[in-house]
Amino acid sequence: MGKGGRGVQDLGAVDVISWDEIKKHSKDEDKWIVIDGTVYDVSKWAKRHPGGPRIISHYAGQDATEAFRAFHTDIKRVSKYMTPLGIGSAEKSKKIDEEEIKRDFVELRRRAEKMDLFTPSKVFFSFIVGHLIFFEILAYLTFYYFGTGWLPYLVSVIFYTIVQSEAGWSQHDFGHLSVFKDNRLNHAMHSFVMNCIKGASTSWWQHLHNQHHSKPNVLNKDPDVRVEKVFVLGEEMPKRVAKENKSWMPYNWQHTYFFAIGPPLLFPVYFQYMIFKHPIVRRNWLDVFLMTTFYIKMLVLYSPFLGVFGAIKYYFLIRCLESHWFVWVSQSNHIPMEIDEDKERPWLSLQLRATCDVEKSFFNDWFTGHLNFQIEHHLFPTMPRHNLYKMTPYVKELCAKHGVPYKCKTLSEAFIDIVKSLKHSGEIWHAYYQSYHVS
Fold first, then answer.
1. Is 90 exceeded by the pLDDT of residue 85?
2. How far, in Å, CA of 383 to CA of 372, rounded?
3. Where are the beta strands (DSSP E) in 75-115?
């Protein structure tokens, strides 16, 4: 077949390929995936995958059908490019229960399509982007009209923190291709909001976030849980880290030092470093250039009021506050949930074990960018966020049918559970560390 790895001729030109054979092809240089019963050799093509090679690698040797449907809004067009990569048909799965869940989830998605829930509201998203621009103007005008005393300074910081935090949720909409039918417009607006309003890297976000959605809370696959240098999460990671004994971190105290190095430093330190490192290493100069326009804007607008160093201090203070906002919201849905090795579960079970919802309210919807409906968002990542809550009763019904737990919490419970989960994981690490290394 030319574009793949080994090709069907290496298997004796058989039409039906066993799952035992498919699972052998899960290495970096040799990847097969299955979509709608067809086996594709993506060994060489994976590097050209628009969503990044790693998301393909995470499904190597597995059935990627549900992930493929979840991420792509133009399946018919994409399927045309996949034809040359096909090498045969996969044998039918013998996991009857899993196949039933998959069929029911297909019906659930069809119901969402019939309800027109994948159609975005132009008014809603115009308001979302418009309120970013509104608060950014307010942040500047506060200094312009009222000076730089402590009160206008504080008010301006609050306004700009709202801009940055809400821009994080807004770019997320465009990055998931959930706003326009034309994906070129989604990509253009993603760059505008992420690069120019937020000053961050679109390519780095896509690199991380696509992996996260494809295998949430899966060890060695979800980059959001690759934090063992600082924290241990779930129940399996603490055991592994304790056995390896490669870190000096006192994980049994992580629920305490989380407050000092988690929310305050994630954006001002780690993210600030990575948003430039990632595109520079990959020579994505357009990403770097568009980000740079944000920092030039910050200096041009705020240096006359605060001086150069004052403008820099103003910027990092906003980043610190934004970091708190982001960490508490984003981690409340995932850290307290199951974090484990890849069990190759169906899409419904995979996402529900890794995510939970937070109760609906006007404030919660705005404060979290509708990611309080994290379950529905993970099941249908291209669905416009203003429609996610409409799927909740149907998702609950399907979960009840198949015995899949559906968790929904208050916002305060979700935040508290982050700390409880860190404490629990730290205690597991300490117990196993004592067992392995302390006589």
1. no
2. 14
3. 86-90
Paired strand residues for 34: 39, 63
**Are 91 and 18 within 8 A, CB to CB?**
yes
pTM higher than 0.85: yes
Its sign, for the CA torsion 15, 16, 19, 21, is: negative
Alpha helices of 215-361 — where are they, by DSSP H?
236-244, 254-261, 272-281, 285-306, 308-332, 347-354
* Of residues 23, 36, 15, the one with CA closest to residue 88: 15
Give residue 52's pLDDT: 78
pLDDT tens-place string over residues 257-311: 999 999 999 999 999 999 999 999 999 999 999 999 999 999 999 999 999 999 9
Nearest CA among 276, 100, 103, 128 for reference residue 192 = 128
CA–chain centroid gap for 205, Å, is 8
What CA–CA distance (Å, rounded) separates 262 from 254?
A: 10
E strand segments, 370-432: 408-409
Q: Where are the beta strands (DSSP E) in 5-150?
A: 16-17, 26-27, 30-35, 38-41, 62-63, 86-90
